[in-house]
Specification:
about 65% helix
Length: about 100
């Protein structure tokens, strides 16, 4: 495990790792990384991922979208659909202050 990184960073790295394995067609490693991305953290934080956040943050809907994409790469349609539905549910239930403003 990498030191100096918080829980969000570890989840984000696991999601990126899962996607890389998905592109390689390594289903077992991709699923293992997806499972890691869902683990509870240790309550650790770092300034970049929790403080600055933004592009470096990883809210639940973004994790679900990433994992849905990985599942699509692997041809896991049902798992991809479930992750995508989770992402949509999280987005629609988010408070307006967490949503990006729409351009006019």
């Amino acid at each position: 495990m990498l030191t100096g990184l918080g829980d969000v960073a570890h989840r984000r790295l696991a999601a990126i790792e899962a996607r890389a394995h998905g592109h390689r067609g390594d289903a077992a490693s991709a699923q293992q990384a997806i499972d890691v991305s869902h683990r509870d953290g240790r309550g650790e934080t770092d300034d970049l991922h929790e403080g600055v956040a933004g592009e470096f943050g990883l809210p639940g809907e973004r994790l679900a979208m990433s994992n849905a994409s990985t599942c699509l790469l692997l041809g896991y349609g049902e798992q991809a659909e479930a992750a995508a539905r989770t992402a949509l549910e999280l987005v629609t239930s988010a408070s307006p202050r967490h949503c990006a403003p729409h351009a006019s």
